[in-house]
Write a structure and sequence with these properties.
The complex is a heterodimer of chains A (611) and B (419). Chain A has 611 residues and is α+β, with helices and mostly antiparallel strands. In chain A, 35% of the residues lie in helices and 17% in strands. Chain A folds into 2 domains: 184 residues, Penicillin-binding protein 2a (Domain 2) (Alpha-Beta Complex), CATH 3.90.1310.10; 336 residues, DD-peptidase/beta-lactamase superfamily (Beta-lactamase, 3-Layer(aba) Sandwich). Chain A has 22 helices and 18 strands. In chain A, the strands form 5 sheets. In chain A, strands 2, 3, 4, 5, 10 and 14 form a 6-stranded mixed beta sheet that branches. Chain A has a 5-stranded antiparallel beta sheet with strand order 12-11-18-17-16, sandwiched between helices. The chains are: A alpha+beta (611), B mainly alpha (419). Chains A and B meet through helix 1 and helix 2 of A and helix 9, helix 15, helix 16, helix 17 and helix 18 of B.
Chain lengths: 611, 419
């Protein structure tokens, strides 16, 4: 029988075997040597970058009292691409969220990126996180990131300290330091000193297994970087005084600004109504923020720096100083006053006539200061009253009015000192002292902020010089920035003229007819000046400025209580109590203190005076 | 005495050496893929590398027993062994244990045995025995039918166990039939069918039919020979068209959903890196990240942190790729190819037809496993769960491949005693 030999087919078979092997080798060479994609993918799968957040710098008051510190919290992060086969209902129960929130959050994260982490649940407290952590391994794709939240041991100074919040898109675009979900100072000290407080983020690279468990650091931490804690900041604030001021201003609208005249450091800055800074921390932040936003009393507004008021009679001190400097008057110049019959400005106070400067300040005589103001503008030294006004204007600006201090004070506004050009424009060039007479008694177009007023007192206390008001005393380990605001500024008025005004301010407290004579203390020599500011929207604002002790001023302050009537009724006693508290540490005038603390001008506003 | 020495001396030590080195490299990979930081001893039977060491020891014993048994035993009892395993396959269908959806395991104590693995050498024996009978001519229809039945009977039983991968392995015997005289046309027809199948899934069937018409018409116009046998041409066209039309139906109604997805992912129709494509994706990342020289033994991060599913069994090749790089896979592929080609060459030098056919059976099965397994891990073939011979973790597969190979080594050693 014929049998064909098929042995030659072995060549075909061996050929196919070798062909397949060659195909495999080409394929493997492509996968392993030519294509780089897989190396990156492998790193993405195995390595996880865990950002190390540094603790944010703490904030202290001038005596080392802690104002702001950190508390640990946890953000639950998710990498949507790694989430698979998880028991959703158990997971939701563990986190205390509903399934709709779960789906919504997961979709949001997926939309951002399937392979990069997003925040799933924010700011879980230490206590809640303990329970979650035990079971977290059951849910691949989820892990926790440690964060710190701000806490405020005393519920004070919310306007100054500011708060932190998640970075906005604009902040992200501006500074590559931040990543989505990071926290950044949003206002106040937190914002101004962000670069010091934030510290430097670190990065830890860890290897994880398929169950998302950490298996140790990558290459023994060779590529890890340590987080550097933020620097602590010491403020000039006196926590006790701030707290006391906030209590005094409770149920009142207005502000207190107290400055250490020797340094320009702000001892207290109260804006009322206020709020507890702890309200703007954590998960309740946005809810509380909306509530504060919608409050008609505007608790978020920092009246101390953003509220502008006509200075009223307190401005008579400035006019007196300018007049003395310009030699428009002497301390012995006497003017007459017809009381209510005085023209062009009537005087509401009852006092002797004629009277000198000291008496005029002590009793706040309108007629005297109208004549003083007129003497400045119509000074024969100048060609005309417009030039006289220009001279006046420059003096006023040098007192710190009409512009911002541009220090670390949050949200300042410049206020307004009307310029010569402004009057030229509105009066078409035809105007004189009579036209702008309101300026004589601090009314009219002139607007100042409480912090500018407090600075005025500091200037008087220092007899002509001042450091711009500021909050920070020192940054831990940084001397350069700590000295940033230590530039002494001078006014255009000589020291000897200040002495005259200071004596008159002392008499406001100590003189027979002084407007603040009821708040005189035997132990402390206080100097002050009342102001009652007419206000088209309601009762007059009560203003008082003061410094003490006279011979070695340690505190200079301005107090404004909105819609409360005479300066001597509310603002003066509050100022005096603040002085007593700061200088002696305790308040002995309990009756006066109680009256101030109990006064509720929001529920029981004083009646509007009938003209 | 002299005869016995002869046999030991006649053993092809190159094959034994290739076997040993593959098993050793395989065990190293399993060790790397299944060890953890607890650092348990290699003799610890609670970890995979410990168990595999036991399987290897027992495989060596099996190999020695086979070498001692008279070579004639296997040809004489080929059919008995075949039927014994057919019987076992039926038994496992009735009494077996289901693991990962396949009812293909016998549980004996704490160990599980997979009869489908052993049925391969039994089939190879039976096929060799049948085709080496006198008066066998591959051209006769009866021979084709009986040979095909011998091959497909165990395949069908394994398919019924829901172990498609192991069932597909039996198609490897087509290579044996080809060597023994089956027309090569069957492979060409198979290739054309596969091509039609893939193009039909990739493109609309209308395009494929149009392309067929264009090819046939241009053939008729250009070639005189085709014009002469136009009847046959039309018949071929009709069959091809019918096949194309039935592919859709078959794809939609015959294949299981997971099989469809695997094919779709392979063809790039579906992208599903988290589902069906997950294994392949992870596998390619592991291999691809190995680079030219690899990350080093036990330093492959994907392997160490178990990112590749089935990494000590079907996807063991990933460990080689990741930890030893292109250099490692080159060595492993060369070892396999050398072994398989060596077996083919040994088969060709056999005097007995039985030994030759059995040798081709061994080479075909090893090659099929090698090609499909590495094709699957490198994303060239659909995910068909079959082990890489000598490498993959598992006693059944290691023993079955050892028996398969050493029966042939024994036959080869005995070749001079065959008249």
């Amino acid at each position: 029988m014929y049998v064909r030999d098929f042995s030659r087919r072995k060549y075909i078979i061996i050929g196919v075997i070798i062909l397949i092997a060659v195909i495999f080798l080409i394929r493997l060479f492509y996968l392993q040597v030519i294509e780089n994609r897989f190396k990156l993918s492998a790193d993405n799968i195995v390595l996880r970058n865990i950002r190390q957040y540094p603790p944010r710098g703490r904030i202290y008051d001038r005596h080392g009292q802690l104002l702001v510190y950190n508390e640990a919290a946890y953000d639950l992060m998710v990498i949507p691409g790694q989430v698979k086969n998880i028991d959703t209902s158990t997971f939701c129960r563990l986190l205390g969220i509903d399934s709709i929130t779960f789906i919504k959050q997961l979709n949001k994260a997926t939309k951002y990126s399937r392979f990069r982490p997003s925040v799933f649940v924010k700011q879980i407290s230490k206590e809640d996180f303990g329970k979650i952590q035990e079971k977290l391994y059951l849910f691949p794709g989820f892990y926790a990131q440690t964060r710190t939240l701000r806490h405020y041991p005393m519920p004070i100074a919310s306007h100054l300290l500011g708060n932190i919040g998640e970075v906005s898109q604009r902040e992200l675009d501006r500074d590559p330091f931040y990543k989505a979900g990071d926290y950044i100072g949003k206002s106040g000290i937190e914002k101004y000193y962000e670069k010091y407080l934030r510290g430097k983020k670190g990065m830890r690279i860890v290897e994880v297994d398929v169950y998302n468990r950490e298996k140790g650091s990558y290459k023994n931490g060779k590529y890890d970087t340590l987080a550097i804690p933020g620097k602590n900041i010491k403020l000039g604030l006196d926590a006790g005084l701030q707290s006391y001021g906030e209590q005094l201003m409770k149920n009142k609208k207005g502000s207190i600004v107290a400055i250490d005249p020797k340094t320009g450091e702000i001892l207290a800055m109260i804006s009322s109504p206020s709020f507890d800074p702890n309200m703007l921390v954590g998960r309740e932040r946005s809810k509380n923020f909306t509530r504060l936003m919608n409050d008609t009393l505007q608790p978020l507004l920092n009246r101390a720096t953003m509220g502008t008021y006509p200075p009223g009679s307190t401005f008579k001190l400035v006019n007196a100083l300018i007049a003395l400097q310009e030699k428009a008057i002497t301390p012995h110049t006497m003017f007459t006053c017809q009381g209510k019959l005085s023209r062009p400005i009537k005087c509401t106070h009852t006092h002797v006539s004629p009277l000198d400067l000291n008496e005029a300040i002590k009793q706040s005589c309108n007629s005297y200061f109208w004549k003083t103001f007129k003497s400045i503008l119509d000074n024969p030294k100048y060609k005309n009253s417009h030039q006289g006004y220009q001279a006046w204007y420059i003096h006023v600006i040098n007192f710190g009015f009409g512009h911002k201090f541009n220090t670390d004070i949050p949200y300042e506004v410049p206020g307004n000192i009307p310029s010569k050009e402004y009057f030229d424009k509105i009066y078409h060039g035809v105007w004189n002292a009579l036209t702008v007479r309101s300026l004589a008694i601090g009314q009219g177009e002139i607007l100042v902020t409480p912090v500018q007023l407090a600075n005025l007192v500091a200037i008087i206390a220092n007899e002509g010089e001042y450091y711009p008001p500021h909050l920070m005393v020192s940054v831990e380990g940084d001397s350069k920035d700590s000295l940033k605001f230590h530039t002494l500024k001078a006014t255009t008025v000589n020291t000897k003229n200040f002495k005259i005004v200071r004596k008159a301010m002392l008499d406001v407290f100590e003189g027979e007819h002084g407007t603040a004579r009821f708040y005189k203390m035997d132990s402390i020599k206080q100097c002050g000046k009342t102001g009652t500011v007419q206000n088209p929207f309601g009762a007059d604002h009560s203003i008082f400025i003061a410094f003490a002790p006279m011979d070695d001023p340690k505190i200079a302050l301005s107090v404004i209580v909105e819609n409360s009537g005479y300066g001597s009724t509310w603002a003066a006693p509050i100022a005096s109590l603040m002085i007593e508290k700061y200088l002696t540490g305790r308040v002995k005038r309990k009756k006066l203190e109680k009256r101030m603390l109990d006064g509720d001008l929001i529920k029981n506003p004083p009646k509007v005076k009938e003209e | 005495m002299q005869r016995r020495e002869n046999i030991i001396g006649n053993i092809d030590w190159l094959t034994v050496f290739l076997y040993a080195i593959l098993v050793f490299f395989g065990w190293l990979s399993i060790y790397s893929a299944s060890s953890d930081e607890t650092g348990r001893s290699v003799f610890d039977l609670s970890v995979r590398y410990g168990k595999q060491l036991l399987w290897i020891a027992m495989a060596v014993v099996l190999a020695m027993i086979i070498l001692i048994i008279d070579a004639k035993f296997f040809s004489t009892f080929a059919f008995w062994i075949y039927f014994l395993f057919i019987f076992t396959l039926i038994a496992v269908l009735l009494f077996g244990k289901t693991v990962a959806g396949s009812r293909s395991w016998f549980q004996i104590g704490s160990f599980a045995i997979q009869p489908a693995e052993f049925a391969k050498f039994a089939t190879a024996l039976a096929l060799a025995r049948y085709l080496s009978l006198l008066n066998i001519d591959m051209r006769s229809l009866k021979t084709k039918i009986i040979a095909t039945t011998i091959i497909l009977l165990p395949a069908l039983l394994i398919f019924m166990q829901n172990d498609t991968g192991s069932a597909l392995v039996y198609f490897a015997f087509a290579v044996v039939l080809y060597r023994e005289g089956l027309s090569g046309a069957i492979f060409i027809i198979g290739l054309i069918m596969a091509l039609l199948f893939i193009t039909t899934l990739l493109f609309s069937k209308l395009y494929v039919l149009a392309a067929l018409v264009v090819i046939i018409l241009s053939g008729l116009v250009l070639f005189k020979r085709i014009r002469k046998s136009w009847k046959l041409t039309v018949l071929v066209f009709t069959i091809a068209a019918a096949f194309v039309l039935s592919v859709n139906f078959a794809f939609e109604h015959v294949l299981e959903p997971h099989q469809k997805t695997r094919i779709n992912v392979l063809l790039g129709i579906e992208k599903d890196p988290r589902g069906a494509g997950y294994n392949v994706n992870q596998s390619m990342i592991a291999i691809g990240s190995g680079g030219l020289t690899g990350k080093g033994f036990r330093k492959g991060m994907l392997t160490q942190y178990q990112f590749v599913p089935e990494q000590s069994t079907d996807f063991i090749f990933c460990t080689v790729g990741e930890e030893w790089g292109f250099a490692g896979v080159l060595v492993v592929i060369l070892l396999f190819i050398t072994l398989i080609v060596r077996i083919v060459l040994l088969a060709e030098r056999q005097r007995s037809k039985f030994s030759r056919i059995y040798g081709y059976g061994v080479a075909s099965i090893l090659f099929f496993h090698f090609a499909v397994n590495i094709g699957m891990t490198t994303g060239l073939a659909p995910v068909v769960g079959i082990p890489l011979p000598f490498f993959s973790y598992g006693g059944s597969s290691l023993w079955a491949f050892t028996i398969l190979l050493f029966i042939f080594i024994k036959q080869d050693a005995n070749r001079l005693n065959v008249l």
